[in-house]
Amino acid sequence: MTLLSTYPATPSSNHVVLAPGDALLVVDLQNDFLPGGALGIAGGDALLPVLRRYCECFVRLRLPIVFSRDWHPPRHCSFQEQGGLWPVHCVADSPGSLAPKQFPIPSTVEMIYKATTPDKDVYSVFEDTPLHELLQRDHVRRLFIGGLATEYCVLYSVRDARRLGYEACLLLDGIAAINRQPGDGQRAIDEMLRIGAVPIRLEQLTQ
Hints:
The chain is an alpha/beta fold. It is 22% helix and 20% strand.
């Protein structure tokens, strides 16, 4: 499926005009992915004020906002003790699975829970969730995507967004990488841009 852009002309190529059909997707902004958490990402806390401002922009225009959460059962296959890659993190309803207290979630947010079954790991917010149906219900055509982590859940979600025909704007000032191998985050950004994601920063938004 290919979706044609129907957005208003922007004042310049450096600006992005928010309009009906846009939605914000904030991926896995959870305590366990922030510094001090079980799988803390260096610099993750620096995203909080930026992503809060993105949320404020979308709330002001009454545009849809979706947050995702890793929501693992206690013995999830992604955990090292079960043979997976990661330390125990984001166990459902644990303090680490929640958003930081200094980040109030807007009342209009739709919450999507992923990787909820013990024997399947999931990175994309679209996989085994109702996200696509929710976006179709709200007539969303363009997604603004940020969150954690760049080379895992953000990358896989952008891939699926593009595969499903959404335009995707990658929030360069709203992502942070784990970088298990040096450069993983930048390689993920390069891949997302290659498949058609548009890189933007907060100051480019025109409301």
